[in-house]
Amino acid sequence: MTIFDKISRTLQELGVSDAQGVESLFAELRKAAEHERAELVARGTPQQAQRVGLCKALRDRWLARKGGVLSQVDENWLKPAGKELKPVVGNQFNKLRRFTANLEFEKLVEALPLQQEAAPQMELPLGAAGRAVPWDLTLPGLRRPLGSIHPVTRMQREIEDIFLRLGFWIESGPEIESTYYNFDALNIPESHPSRDDWDTFYIDAKTVLRTHTSPVQIRAMEKYGAPLSIIIPGKCYRHDNPDSTHSPMFHQVEGLAIDEDITFADLKGTLDFFVKMLFGEKVRTRFQPSFFPFTEPSGEVAVSCFVCDGQGCRVCKESGWIELMGCGMVHPQVLRNGGIDPEKYSGWAFGLGVDRFAMVKYDINDMQLFFQGDLRFLEQF
Length: 381
Ligand code: DAH
Known about the structure:
Bound molecules: 3,4-dihydroxyphenylalanine
Strand content: 15-25%
Largest sheet: 7 strands, mixed
Strand order of the largest sheet: 1-5-6-10-9-8-7
Order of helices and strands: HHHHHHHHEEHEEHEEHEEEHEHH
């Protein structure tokens, strides 16, 4: 049985049950790898096409994820190994992995001597029609540089992950919204300044670019009724001039939990857990009274600065605290507007700015950087 037959069986099937047996199997494999590599290097090749093809074949034979020698060893020897043998097999496997790193394609190609004069007259491969085509189809393709996740998206996903773990689900709603959902249903009266042209982009008298994600609270209540626990990430729009802390388009995540017997303690507990998951176990939360038309009572949440632990630093502007979001107990009228009986159900809600969270967490001092598409900035994430 060759060593390549042996890798398709388990150690038990091979009757190998001690460290010595394992080590000699792996030694055999290393020898085989070295042999194949040396043979290829010694053979060399005058033709670029062949050279690349041969290197790739050898690399794949050993390192391909599917069916490569190493992955077979992993599947058949390492994974099924018993408790006593596993550490030895793991150890040897790592050693083999390091050893076979020199079979990586680039390293192989480098190691292969190429006879210079032959390269320009390389044999032309045949195209589909059987005619020679003037390019080398076996060359590796150009690698497209991979992008990275935008910092605001990354922040949003981190927030979503925490709430998904708590059993919330993700809801979304339209960015072009009726004034009813954006304002009236949320108890924001006709006279409220946020409804002014100066604050809100109107499409027509009854249609706006939503100024917050809160209207989806009502839509979700209508759609699902109670109980309900959702978060609502999304884009919002306000008539703000762009500066280092404002943008006419920005991102929020809204949270909403409705059930029987939901109290302010649930709100505090959940948000405290949330910020600890996001900023670290050490941060403390501070709830201050505030006002929003759609919650009663309403609060403003701050966390102790996760950089200086409340001592005062640049990130918290020397205050020791970072103001993070608005929250409160859902106003009974808002529940009613969503078709939910406030005598039976209660709920809490919060709303936070994702861009602001990302600025705080990643220490970014200018919100505009998020939206300018400057690669020097984006590549850092
Ligand atoms: N919608 C508010 C805003 O955009 C944020 C907010 C505050 C949402 C308190 C809430 C809340 O759900 O309970 O400023």
